[in-house]
Amino acid sequence: MTAFSLRRLRALLRKEWLQVKRDPMTLRLIVALPVMQLLIFGYAINSNPHDLPTGVLMAQPSTYERTVVAALRNSGYYRVRTLSSEREAEEGIAQGKLLFVVNVPPGFDRRVDRGESPAILIDTDGTDPTAIGYATAALGGLTDVLARDLPPVRRAATATTAPFRFVVHTRYNPEQLTVLNVVPGLICVVLMMSTLMLTTLAITRERERGTMENLLAMPVRPIEVMLAKIAPYVGIGYLQVLIILLVAVGLLHLPIHGSIVLLFAVLGLFIASNLALGITYSTLAANQMQAQQMAQFTMLPFMLLSGFVFPFQGMPRWARVVGEIMPTTHAMRIVRGVLLKGNGLAEILPELWPIALFTGCTVVIAVRFYRETLD
C-alpha cells in the first residue's frame, strides 16, 4: 500500500472543489439559508406581540370611556378601532380580523361616579392563546393606572372598590389549551412538508433515471404531465389529514365545530398549492439534491412566518406581508376557523382566494419551464 501523499490529496481536493463550483445553485442555497434563518429569528420572531387588532363598542362615548380606550391604545398591546355594531364585532372575531372586542356598558360614567364598579366585557379569540396572553395580563395594570387618574370626586366614590373591572371572555378555547392551537396548525405544516418534499423529486427523478426522454417523446401536453405527477400525492395528503384528525379527536379531544366536508374541500386547494410549488422546483432543479434544497429553503419561512410557532401578530409589518403571500398562513386560519369556530364558507372566503392565486401562479410557472424542457 502506498504511503500518504499530500500531492494526491491536493489533487483530490481540487477535483472536489471543481465539482462544487459547477453547482452554483447549491452554493447560493448554502449561503442564503443561514442568512434567512438569522433574519427571521433576529427580526421577525416575537413571542410578546403588540399592536393586536381590537374593536371597541361604546353605546354613548363619554370622556371617561375615551380615557379607557386611550389607555388600551397607549399600552402598546392593542390597535384600537371603533365598531358600529355587534354584528361587525361578531364577524371580526369569526374571521380573525379582531383578536379583542371591548364592550363598554351604557351609562359607564354614571356607574363609576356611584361607585358601582361596572364591568367592561372583553371578548378574546382563544384560538391562539400565545398571542393574547400578554395583552390580557396587562389589563390588571391598566385598572390601577386609570384609578389613580380619576378626578378627586370620582376617586372618593371608588375608594373601597375598583372604579371598574375588566371581565375577559375567551371564545372558542376557554381554557386556553395550547393543543387546540397546535393541532390545526400541525395539519397544515405536515401537509406542506410532505407534499412539497415528495413532488420536488417528480421531474428530477425522471432525469436521473434516464426516463425523461421517454416522457418527452409521449404525445401529451405539459399540463397533463403536471396533473399526472401530482394526483397520487393528493390522496396521500388526504390520508395524512384523516390520520391526524382521528388521533387528535380520539386522544387529544380536539373539538370539531365546523363541516368536515368543507374542511377537506379547502385542504384540497392547499394541497394543490404545495404540489404545484413542488413541481415548479422539480422543473427548475438540475438534480434531486437541488430540488430538496429548494424545498428546505422554502419550508422554514412557510412554517415560521405562518403563525404556527410564533404569533403572527407579533411579527413586524414586513414579515407579515411576506407571511400573507404564503398559502400556509391562510390555510392555518381556515383550519382553525372551521374546527374551533365552526366557520362556514362565507367566513373563510377571504382566506381562500390568496391560496387559489398562489396555486395558479405556480402552475403557470411550472408549465412554462416544463415547455422549455420540451424545447
Task: Give a written overview of the molecule.
Residues 143-373 form the ABC transmembrane type-2 domain. It is found in: Cell membrane. This is ABC transporter permease. With 375 residues, the protein is an alpha/beta fold. The protein contains 17 helices and five strands. It has helices at 6-21, 24-44, 63-74, 86-94, 108-113, 129-137, 139-148, 152-157, 179-199, 202-209, 212-217, 222-251, 260-284, 288-304, 317-325, 327-341, 345-374, and strands spanning 52-58, 78-82, 100-104, 119-125, 165-171. A five-stranded mixed beta sheet has the order 2-1-3-4-5, with helices on both faces. Helix 9 (179-199) packs antiparallel against helix 14, helix 13 (260-284) packs parallel to helix 17 (345-374) and helix 16 runs antiparallel to helix 17 (345-374). The longest helix is centred in the middle third of the chain and has 30 residues, at 222-251.
